[in-house]
Amino acid sequence: MFDALAIRQTCGDVMRTGRTEERQGRKAAQREAEARKKRRTALIWGGIAVVVVLAGIAFAYRSYSRQQFLNTMTTATYPAAMHVTGPISYKESPPIGGPHNVLWQNCGIYEVPIHNEHAVHSLEHGAVWITYRPDLPADQVAMLKTIASDDYMLLSPYPGLDGPIVATSWNHQLRLADAADPRLARFIGQLKNNPDTTPEFGASCYGGTSAPATADTLTNPSQGIAR
User: Fold this and answer.
1) Residue pLDDT, tens place only, 101-148
2) Rounded to 5 degrees, what angle do the CA atoms 202, 75, 119 make?
């Protein structure tokens, strides 16, 4: 009888011990699962924080880079839609805005100088006008022709230019010493036909005149239109 009771007690102790160990095991597993969840959450939030920090750094760098780029340019605040006839005296050379002829210069590559007054009208339509000194080396001119072989681009020699190359859009101008300067592509990419800086965004860069500066198209604009 005693032995049977002892056995039952022993079995009970074993079962209780087993249940205790089972509960402890479940609690330990639960704690481990919670710890894994916390680690995973921490990693996720840590990753988000890294992305936010990197995005902030990238934004700050782009803003700084853009400001530095703008600092290398000449800018103005000329109003648009000032169409006149006859020769015009401009403050800048080449001009970057202001009054201009009623007839715009057709975009394209010109081997001879063109009238400022027609070119400025093209700037109003969103064109970028690249001018260069007539004595610019041939390889540099060839590079400029490649760059200018796109829509809303003007290229022409400019006698008396105070630097090798000048890129101009409406109210913006950049002077360059070399056609390979990466700022030229950036200037074109940011300002050519830009709706924020183009007074007459959407206006055509064709249907105007292709006449050179030797033609009498300032006082007689109709003579510059091909018939």
Assistant:
1) 999 999 999 999 999 999 999 999 999 999 999 999 999 999 999 999
2) 50
Q: Is the same domain home to 99 and 207? A: yes
Domain containing residue 105: CATH number: 3.40.30
pLDDT tens by residue, 175-221 = 999 999 999 999 999 999 999 999 999 999 999 999 999 999 998 87
The CA-based dihedral angle spanning residues 135, 138, 142, 144, taken in that order and rounded to the nearest 10 degrees: -30
Give which of 222, 210, 216 is closest to 156, Cα–Cα. 210
Are 166 and 173 contacting, i.e. CB atoms less than 8 angstroms apart? yes
**What span, in angstroms and rounded, lies between the C-alpha atoms of 139 and 165?**
13
CA atoms within a 13 Å half-sphere pointing along the CA-CB vector of 117: 25
Q: Are residues 45 and 150 in the same domain?
A: no
Per the structure, the count of domains in the chain is 2
Continuous segment of H or E residues that includes residue 168: strand 165-169
